[in-house]
Automatic annotation (TrEMBL):
GO cellular component: cytoplasm
Lineage: Bacteria, Bacillati, Actinomycetota, Actinomycetes, Mycobacteriales
GO MF annotation: an example: uracil phosphoribosyltransferase activity
Name of a matching Pfam family: UPRTase
Known EC number: 2.4.2.9
Family assignment from sequence similarity: Belongs to the UPRTase family.
InterPro entries, alphabetized: PRTase-like, PRTase_dom, UPRT, UPRTase/APRTase
UniProt pathway: Pyrimidine metabolism; UMP biosynthesis via salvage pathway; UMP from uracil: step 1/1
Highest rank taxon of the organism: Bacteria
GO biological process: UMP salvage; uracil salvage
Entry protein name: Uracil phosphoribosyltransferase
Length: 207
C-alpha cells in the first residue's frame, strides 16, 4: 500500500496544536481544518487534469480543471471536522457519509450510517478520518466503497498507528494513505500513543 507522510513545518505545527491537551475545542477544530487542507493538497498532487481554453482579461490561454470531481467521505463523527475544509478546496466534489461508533469494551467498529452513491465506478474517493487506529473503521468503509465499484481510494488521516497502517496493507483493499504522522503504537484502550486523544471529543466536547 502506498503511504505518504506529509513532512511540512506548517503541518507539524498544526498537528502540535492538536496534540496539546490544553488546546480548546474551537482551536482544535480550526487546526484540523487547516491541516486537512494541507493533506488534501498532497492527496491531489497527482490528480488527473484536463486542459480547457480560457480567456484572461489579456489573452487566451490554457486552463486546467480536475478530470473527475471526487467523492469525499467523512467517517462520522470525527471526520466531520475535515469535510468542509476538503470541500472548500474541491468545490465540485460530492459528499457521502459513513457513521461508525466504537464499542468501548471490544474496540470493534459499530456501523450506524451509510449514505453513499450506489455506483462509484471511475470516481476518485477520499475517505476523511482524523485517526487511523486499529484500522477497523477504515476497513469497513473501504469495503462499502469497493462494493460500489470504487477502485481509486485515498484515506486521508491526521494521525495513524502502525497497527492501522499494517491492517490496511494486509487487507489487500485498493487504498493509498495520506497522513501527517505515524505514531508509536496503540495503548490497551486502542488509543493512539502519543496521539491526540479522542478526535471527536476534542472537536465537539465529551459525550
Ligand atoms: N480514535 C480517536 O479519536 N483517537 C484515538 O487515539 C484512536 C481512535
Amino acid at each position: 500500500m502506498r503511504t505518504d507522510t506529509v513532512d511540512h513545518p506548517l503541518a507539524a505545527t498544526l498537528l502540535s496544536t492538536m496534540r496539546d491537551a490544553r488546546t480548546d475545542n474551537a482551536t482544535f477544530r480550526n487546526a484540523l481544518a487547516d491541516l486537512t487542507g494541507i493533506l488534501m493538497y498532497e492527496a491531489l498532487r497527482d490528480a488527473p487534469v484536463v486542459r480547457e481554453p480560457i480567456d484572461t482579461p489579456v489573452a487566451p490561454t490554457d486552463g486546467i480543471r480536475l478530470a473527475a470531481p471526487p467523492l469525499l467521505v467523512p467517517v462520522l463523527r470525527a471526520g466531520l471536522g475535515m469535510v468542509y475544509a476538503a470541500a472548500e478546496l474541491v468545490p465540485q466534489a460530492r459528499v457521502g457519509f459513513v457513521g461508525i461508533a466504537r464499542d468501548e469494551q471490544t474496540h470493534e467498529p459499530v456501523p450506524y450510517l451509510e449514505s453513499l452513491p450506489a455506483d462509484l465506478t471511475g470516481l476518485p474517493v477520499f475517505v476523511l478520518d482524523p485517526m487511523l487506529a486499529t484500522g477497523g473503521s477504515m476497513r469497513h468503509t473501504l469495503e462499502l466503497l469497493v462494493a460500489r465499484g470504487a477502485t481509486d481510494i485515498t484515506a486521508v488521516c491526521v494521525v495513524s498507528a502502525p497497527e492501522g497502517v499494517a491492517a490496511l496493507a494486509a487487507s489487500g483493499l485498493p487504498v493509498r494513505l495520506i497522513t501527517a504522522a505515524i505514531d508509536d503504537k496503540l495503548n490497551e484502550n486502542a488509543y493512539i500513543v502519543p496521539g491526540l486523544g479522542d478526535a471527536g471529543d476534542r472537536q465537539f466536547g465529551p459525550r
